[in-house]
Write a structure and sequence with these properties.
By secondary structure, the protein is α/β, with parallel strands linked by helices. It is built from 25 helices and 17 strands. The longest helix has 56 residues.
Amino acid sequence: MPVVDLKSHIAAAVRLFRVPADNPDLTRAQFNAFSKQIPLLYFILMSNTIAVAYTYVNVAPDWLTIIVPSVLTVLAALRTLWWLRQRHLVRSDADILRNLRSTNWMTLPIGAGFTAWSFALYPYGDPFAKSQVAFYMAVTVIGCIFSLMHLRSAALIVTLVVDVPYVLFFWATGEPTLKAIAVNNLLVSGAMVTVLFIYYRDFADLVASRKSLLAQQAATQALSDENFRLANLDSLTELPNRRRFFAELSSAFADAERRKVRVAVGIIDLDGFKPINDNYGHSVGDRVLIEAGCRIREVCEGFGPQRVEFARLGGDEFGLVVCGDPDDSDLTRLGERIGDQVKLPYQLDTAHTGLSCSIGFALFPQSATTAEALYECADYSLYHAKRHLRGRTVIFSSELEAEIRSRGVIETLLRTADFNSEMDLVFQPIVDAMSEHTAGFEVLARWRSPRLGLVSPADFIPAAERIGLIRPLTQALLGRALATARTWPDDIRLSFNLSAHDVCAAEGILPLISIIEKSGVPPRRIDFEITETAVTFDFARAQQSIATLKAMGCGISLDDFGTGYSSLSHVHRLPLDKIKVDRSFVADINENPVSHKIIKSLAGLCDDMEIACVVEGVETRAQLDSLRRLGCDFIQGYYFARPMPGDAIGDYLANERQRLDHAGAKVVA
């Protein structure tokens, strides 16, 4: 057993004097740091050597004071130049290891040479000159050890080759002062070696931690890239999605403005798709969408000289961005080619289907002066095509512009509407995915106009934003919603939507804060839902408003995640409590692996950020079970309840308690 221990100790000691080859990252870090300090080492050697040689030049032989120090100095200068050249060379791990090992063993003869030269000079000097030799050797070895701290083995070789003979030599002189210097140097060298070991260990740990950090950063970047790819990809057709479409539109529009050329936006809607879904089922409908998307993409890729960006906007709608200065004839020709391909028969198993498509185009700068307005013009062109020219291509014109003005009817009536009497509030439950217990309700507005009847929020909310009424509308609805929430149990939260104008207004959100304080509802029970579009409208001001609401104790949810235009960088910079995943990702989660991947990635993102994941549009038990397995926290959708009036919430909660109590009793039984 002692023999084994002795061998192991000897092996460990030998390893101290070798450059490790099993850690290329550490070796490279040593080389980089060492190559910067080695010129300092040789400067110390050369300057101190010249000083000692000058002292002895008149008392010692020329070969000791001129020839030997000249050779040693030239050798040190050459090594300095060699190391300076290494800074700018890109070397392999093998080259670095070989250079460090050669440097390691060159330390032995160089150290021995300078030591032998010092001892040879010593007898020729007077007491002052001899003291200078002692000082020279002590200071030089200390400087060299510090310069060699990144190459531990070389520093240890210098310590042994110089310090051991140094201590023995001056101890043997019998001179008390020199003996004291020898002992002092021995103690200082021991302390320096201890510092050397500690520094080397910390240096190795730093290199290892940096490697780990880089690996983590690479993994995080890979995940971010994958999430970005999935977030910009339509889960069904694997075409670019709505988010990617609007990003391309914004970029193409800015380029067209700068170059003063034309750019067009097109929106395609498949005519006759709904009967396919109704008659053959969603599975066949999905396959038709995929096939139609492939056909349209082939037309777009082969359409020259214009470049056409193609994306699925949602449902049976597709979007086009036509670059390359197109004119009306180019757009008409593109529309005809797309229509011809879409009309070809679709044969799927035993089902034979036929489609056509309506297309609306708008051209910059004739139709609009902003990307958003250009899209709206194309959308209205599509609307006109579906109403009057189904299966045809319509390009936005002055006649259509006149029709748009008729939308001013809604805006006019909205200006004179009584929000308290004409606006109805309904509430949809937000349910804990695991316990199926209602955690809160989202409030939704409905407008019952005396002249127009029931008007969809999709119509009157944008109109209110356009005419500057969205903020008074928000304030009126928030006050009524909080009055209803005040009657609920304390553990039930209220979710309320804010628009871009609410969070980005110059006067801030002070009116909303005042309404909350007067309502008697604790801010901790309130969640404000803000869309990605609202955040990007004026990010700096939106960030301030969100921070203020958060400081009050309110929760912040990012609504319709995956359908807006913002990036993950915005998400990371906001103090969010929840992310609401848009319903478009949920419909085919159990049929389409890509949809499953997207939800999984978004749930993982929420988990990493320690925020809750709320999924909208859940309509079946199978969808709920899948979302549970993926770790989603809250569910909203028709599976649990449709939006209900405020006076129905009490009965809903009572029925829920009975249902959950009954389910719990069955489990116990």
